[in-house]
Amino acid sequence: MGFKALRVYDTPEVKQVIETFEENALPQGDVIIKVHYSSINYKDALSATGNKGVTRQYPHTPGIDASGVVTASTSDQWQVGDRVIVTGYDLGMNTHGGFSEYIRVPAEWVVKCPETLTLREAMCYGTAGFTAALSVSKITENVSTEAGKVLVTGATGGVGSIAVALLSQLGYTVVAATGKPEYAKHLTDLGASEIIHRDVTNDTSGKAMLKGQYAAIIDTVGGNILSTAIKMLNYGGHVTSCGNVASPEFASSVFPFILRGVTLHGIDSVACPMLKRMAIWSKIASDWKVDALIQSVEEIDLEEVPNVITQLIDGTHKGRTIVKI
Fold first, then answer.
1. What global pTM score does this model have?
2. Are 145 and 102 in the same domain?
3. Secondary structure letter of residue 22 according to DSSP
4. Nearest to 155 by CA among 124, 122, 129, 192
5. Mean pLDDT of successive 10-residue segments in the chain (325 residues)?
6. Are 205 and 152 part of one and the same domain?
7. Could you tell me if 141 and 196 lie in one domain?
8. Which of 56, 102, 150, 253 could, after both became Cys, cross-link 208 (CB 3.0–4.6 A)?
């Protein structure tokens, strides 16, 4: 069978082209999936622009998300016709990814798509939504809706915008921090009660602690903004960390931890255990399905992916973009 895929080359210069492949070009694996939808994440943008920290070997097909239908399987776990989701693991990093009409992956990477979720809706969430849901899950486990405001940083990004929508639907008062005030209406439509500029969350005073303002914070950017978030929590507050677009490094003192009893949670969506992965997708398909989010998603064709990659690298992209394969 011949099929199309986006291929990234890094020599003599980085370029992205649509090429035709045969099944034997796919990597080894147990399950072949005809991809119906993928989505575009910041990690895809890094892979598609030659970042060796994400993808070691080129040429390569990015796409860390895929939803589709099984067309062949050597595993008893999956049958032809099964509707499935693949996110995380090595998909789209060093394994042929979802910007392709077909993928072949190990059986243990595959999740059954819940009956109440379409393949399109699954990619409206994708890795970004799964990461946001993992973060929100930590908040719901530890912070009540009456405890105070919840701050979301990087709120116009994929993870941030979904976190805003989920928290709002669950009854939390959400403050959205963004460097793109022109997208304030987008955030209020998703449920944000207040919009603040990201500079407010980027403290450079050198103080060990700031006035406590938030019961919880979902930080999607890392760096000094995460440092500031830790200092802005109320007593007993919780902050989740799931991104590093600002910087993979941050500085903190012990004082917020020993004087306010705050807790920092690391969020990993790549190697998340399967039982937890299935539980989160079950939530997304039921109580955590957000109609406003699904309606706000931009849908493009495979040929339009390079344009969105450029927007992500330039910092001009907002919300979620899915790819109809």
1. 0.93
2. no
3. E
4. 192
5. 92 92 92 97 94 94 98 97 97 96 97 97 95 97 97 94 95 96 91 96 95 97 97 98 92 96 96 95 95 90 95 87 96
6. yes
7. yes
8. 253
